[in-house]
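Recall that a protein's primary structure is simply its ordered list of amino acids. Everything else, from secondary elements to tertiary packing, is in principle encoded there. The following example makes that idea concrete.
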Amino acid sequence: MLTRVIGEDIDLIMVPAASLGAVRADAGQIDQVIMNLAVNARDAMPSGGKLTIETSNVSLDEEYARFHAPLRPGDYVLLSISDTGLGMDSETQSHIFEPFFTTKGPKGTGLGLSTVYGIVKQSGGYVWVFSEPGKGTTFKIYLPRVAERAEPARVLALTRLLSPLPEPKLSFWQRTKPICATSPGKFLEKQGYTVIEAADGTRAMQIASRAPGREFTCC
């Protein structure tokens, strides 16, 4: 998907770690982080260039944390996204994570990087930007490494009549934090969904089995 988004004039370079640690984060949201940063990088390289996406395991000590507050020392997974584009001055860098701040004029919404910041913070991580005019930009995202397995997820079973389809479509939305239920649930109900919460995936599948003839998907 990224190659289609950034275009043919930009080389995509992937440098994945051989054995990457685990993090507790929503995969779809991390996809969104990467996509938003890739789109920004593309816009910063109108004449082409290189987009590098790199992952690695890092351990940050007290000294490093002292100069990168509020980061805490510990083990992290680093996601680094770099471009060879126009770069930014220090004044621009001080505002890029603010909602509705944009340097793209009417074409920009100013929500891409604020969304990145929100997702990273929600995942317990930290994000920094390193850039100079004419020397490109690098975003470094640190997500805490975890050793234990994730807690059993709770599931929302969602149903909605999708006109003009003759039958309702049943889908499952998985979440890992109970606090997430209220806002997305209300939003989906406003969109015409009936929201049913189940304790786990097994229970959700039981709900689906009682709805014969309905198409369902899991995500």
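The chain has a mean pLDDT of 78. The longest helix spans residues 27-43.
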